[in-house]
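1st attempt posting a full record on here, be nice pls
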Amino acid sequence: MPQHSVVLESPWKRIKLGPPSVKFNEDVARCRAHPRTRQYLPFLPEVVTAEDIQHRMETRAEDPKIMDFYIFLTEDNSTEKFAGNTGYFNIDHTHASCEVGIVVSPDIHGKSIATETFYVLLQYIFEEQGFHRATFETGADNVPMQRWFENVAGIRKEGERKECWKADGRYFDVMSYAVLDWEWKGRVKSSLAKRLNAI
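the predicted structure (as tokens):
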């Protein structure tokens, strides 16, 4: 199955979301294996090759419950730079729900890329695709991400899943968050826009 052709552009014009492409396999491999990425996603492998990413990309494109995007950052009003990957998965059309994830390239952390990416992606999920519920998971040790959910986006914490992720023979606790369509329209969307307008 070929990749989708959906392209989503940010109102702030800094980022664009597009379909996965083979020409960014090396970038994705470096991003996923980077120590800063693996700090809070310990189940990711230490070594990732372009071939690994190609296989992953092809396999996920075949799965109707996954919708992947690559993040591109516009620099100097023209040049587009690979900035990470995002998307939604565990798609359940019966209950109109999905799970959302993101990995931002470590060299551009701290530039509100995640905020802008989630604004664009959640707008698509709720306003164009008609989902009712989107969930998120982050490691219990990933305090910066938890603060972002709670203080920047105003996304609800729903619980803690004990020993949910396994890596290197150890189990890690996971924090679960969720947003409903009416929460997105009534609070979360404006919270993210306020942060982005202040950049």
